[in-house]
Amino acid sequence: MSRKLSRPSTGFTLVELVMIIVILGILSVVVMPKFWDNSTFQARGFADQVLATLRYAQKSAIAQHQNVCVSLTTTAIALKIIGTPPCTTNLNLPGAQSNSLTAPSGITLNPAISLTFDALGRASTTATIAISGVTPSITVEAETGYVHQ
């Protein structure tokens, strides 16, 4: 009786190699463009900064027992403390030498509004702020001053 020695298979078959090349081709077409276009990441980061800035404005108004004015343009957000005349003293952002935050190019805020947080943290008006490329919008509740997405 003769015995055949079977050798374990090593390497890949041609079908396996072709399938890997096809999968890599599909991934390169779908995924790779996202690595070079970082506008989504910039928009999300700016939205987080706007949210944090609005919350900081509310907390500063409560802590300092003063009204804090928030001015939103289509490309920036700025904070000031009520003085005489109103809204004259800059309220610098934490860790910054400035009271404003500017949007990266191509990213906009809508609408351009002004609102004020009073000493109890309440907002002067309800506001819904949309940032291009980001969902959901940021909402500021008038009754409580609650800032959320």
Give a description of the structure:
This protein has 149 residues and is of the alpha+beta class. It has a single domain (40-148), classed as minor pseudopilin epsh fold (3-Layer(bab) Sandwich), CATH 3.55.40.10. Helices cover 32% and strands 21% of the residues. The protein contains 3 helices and 9 strands. The chain has helices at 14-30, 32-36, 39-64, and strands at 68-72, 76-81, 89-90, 100-102, 109-110, 114-117, 127-131, 138-140, 147-148. A hairpin with a 3-residue loop joins strand 1 (68-72) and strand 2. The radius of gyration is 27 Å and the shape is elongated.
In short:
This protein is an alpha+beta fold and 149 residues long. Helices cover 32% and strands 21% of the residues.
CATH class: Alpha Beta
Strand share of the residues?
Answer: 15-25%
**Number of extended strands:** 9
CATH architecture: 3-Layer(bab) Sandwich
Rounded radius of gyration (Å)? 27 Å
Order of helices and strands: HHHEEEEEEEEE
| Helix/strand structural class | alpha+beta
Shape, principal axes of CA atoms: elongated
Mean pLDDT: 90
Reported for the largest beta sheet, the result is: 5 strands, antiparallel
List keywords for this structure.
149 residues; alpha+beta; minor pseudopilin epsh fold; five-stranded antiparallel β-sheet; four-stranded antiparallel β-sheet
